[in-house]
Amino acid sequence: MTGRVASVNVGIVTEAEWAGDASGRSGIDKRPADGPVLVRTDGVAGDFIGERAHHGGPDKAVYAYAQEDAAWWEAELGRTIRPGGFGENLTTYAVDVTGAVIGEQWAVGQAVLQVTMPRTPCTTFAGFWGVPDLIKRFTVRATPGAYLRVLREGAVGAGDPIEIAHRPAHGVTLGEVFQALNLKPQLLPRLLDAEDLPGWIRDKARRRLATVTG
After folding, report:
1. pTM of the entire structure?
2. Are the C-beta atoms of residues 118 and 64 closer than 8 Å to each other?
3. Per-residue pLDDT tens over the stretch 15-24
4. Is 53's pLDDT higher than 80?
5. Where are the domains of the chain?
């Protein structure tokens, strides 16, 4: 089955005590757009990003989360989670997001996107959902969603197919990176094989490996 965009979501300004921004504002609450949205190298047009020190930028221009993984959380928490409820710009369908290879390129609508790194859960996410232990539970579940670079700008809309245009031979998956950084340090050497992984993550892996072997 061809993967598809189930929804394109754009963040609105939310003011709350749990917001990570120093001003108390967050863009984690994202709502489905009515039509195609321009995806640019610096992010999705109209998307509000509150704490730019940790969100947004070229390596985190777009965040994607799988509809199938969202369904697991709905069952786990016993509540409906609408598209955008994870703070994702793209809600995907029939795409193995966790199994995506770092550096993998997706042709989506008029845009070409590249898988860069997994999402790290934060206190803003826990506050938004009102689930105090969400960081721990999200980490254990290990379906973090994918941050994406924008290699070619263009409009993306609900229903657009998601086609794998290129997949690097190293085979290091998004899930492996998340596991290595959070749950299984024995996987850290794998991260050094993923040349498209942001440099600061590869440097972190080297430091941790030096500590273990030093």
Report:
1. 0.94
2. no
3. 888 886 667 8
4. no
5. 3-170
